[in-house]
Amino acid sequence: MTQPCTSNNVRRRAVLSSLATGVAVLGSGCASRLRAVTGWKSPDQVTLQIKTVPADDDPYALRIARKVAAWLRTAGIGVQVTPMAEEELLRQVLLNHEFDLFVAPTPAQFRTPDALYPLLHSRFAGAQGWQNPFGYTNLDADELLEKQRHTSGQKRREAVQQLLQSVATTQPFTVVAFPDDIRAARTDRFTNWQRADLQSPMGYLNLNRRAGAESLTVESSDAAESQLTVATTDQRLTENLNPLAVEFRRTSAITGLLYDSLGYSPDGQTVAPWLASSWAFSEGKEGPVARLKLRPETTWHDGEPLTAADVAFTYAFLADTSLGSVIQTEDGEDEDGPVPAPRFQGQSSLVTDAKAVDSRTVELRFVDCEPQVATRAFTVPVLPRHVWNERTAAASVGGIELGSATEALVTNNIPPVGSGPLAFVRNTPREALVLERFDDHFLTRTNADGIPSHLADAPAFDRLTVQVVGSDVTAAETVASDDADVTGTPLGASTVPRIGRASELDLIVRRSERFYLVGYNARRPPLTNPRFRNTLAHLVDKDFITREVFEGYAQPAASPLDDTRWLPSDLRWNGTDPVTPFLGSNGELDVERVKEEFRNAGYQYDDGKLVGG
What we know:
It is a single chain. By secondary structure, the protein is α+β, with helices and mostly antiparallel strands. It contains 19 helices and 28 strands. It folds into four domains: 33 residues, no CATH class; 230 residues, Dipeptide-binding Protein, domain 3 (Roll), CATH 3.10.105; 155 residues, D-Maltodextrin-Binding Protein, domain 2 (3-Layer(aba) Sandwich), CATH 3.40.190; 159 residues, Dipeptide-binding Protein, domain 1 (Alpha-Beta Complex). A hairpin with a 2-residue loop joins β14 and β15. It is globular, with a radius of gyration of 25 Å.
């Protein structure tokens, strides 16, 4: 007997769950409605566009995209690969959500369970930045994300493990691999490169200067006692120093040297005092409350005092860069809702209120969460109120308002005014950026409580010059010719033999905290269907990509929390993906198995082309 198709027969959660597992049993009428909702019903070939960056911007992303495209074409899907400048890719994907699939590395920040909250929670499905750019909605995942925030111990671990299993099944994105960061470095002036993760500002501060080493030659009028020169292929560093600009920030390494945060993460898992010398938590009505003490006599690079009022302003500003102003949308309507900063929204959204108690004491109130989760909010850059308070107006170009954006989100912020260990000197767009040691920073003092001894009197250089070059090979040759000390952006694996043959270079290889992913836009059919996304994940041979694209300098993975204590044993890589194993071997798809999987998902084939059911 056919089951009647009414709203009471199939609850939304049951539908989502059955789509994820593929075990739904519905009547024909319900199936038709379900196909219409999930994008299954189409007489035409399924076509997808994959957006990524060109080879000059990234050594791996385009090659991954082309491999994935080849597998999708073999599966009968029409595919187009569209390379574009990284700035434009991030604008289209993270700001405008104009994509089907994209291939890119993530920023190095998804290493704790709560980092997945803004990445995956449905409340951020319409947000910008790395806040759920996939438009992913999963009620079970939402509940587990909430649960891990306000539980601890074994209960939190169980919630995280269930969350990771759900994400691996429903595939809002496919984790491809964690690459090795490959760099060429000289050791005749600076050492400790193995500990220097240059994706993080702490990497630069961990360097040691070799005793008696002579600095690179610099212009005599600007000569410093010691200079660190970094060769990079990323010219955006020389054009924009706005810490809030999504499309200009591959990492926060340089802006993290210009701006201090209340705390820093020495291991990617915990948070330790930085601009704040200490903090203490108490219980509030809604969630925890923290009182933080700022280090004494801290100032901004322009000489203005840094106070608790700047900290309170920062959290209010990140939550709403218009500070309550009315912003006119693109259709001319007035919008009085908040305009949050796309970057750091995951951390700042933990804070419900911030107020200055006195000049050195700030009080932060949080949502319902454990204190260890709340400390993530301490890692946002603290902004000077006297500078950013003037950037709340609607953004405009040539007098034309852009709509739903503020000047804070579009300014290039040059020259920047921060409080970090380095201060801005000058920039030449697309060529170079020069920063110098800020002598009034707390690292230069002997009484910087809580700062590890190896960071005392950091940095080990008086000047940092970022020099833009055209390619990975040029970057390595710039270091080999003694015109730079290190390559700032990671190099492709193809440069390893060249670095190895140069006796004056050290090859620095360390596992990155970033991972490459194939991201799916779950707002667009047929990608709205988690079973379809799950089947797509079966078409990606991660082991083959690791060998052929990364040339072995990567580790394939099935979860964004791979290589952390949170990863359950049944999600560990064991030679194949434990949830979505490749439907074939050695990079070759088993076409009959692929067709069977798509048919099981409700699709059909017409003359070898995949079409809707």
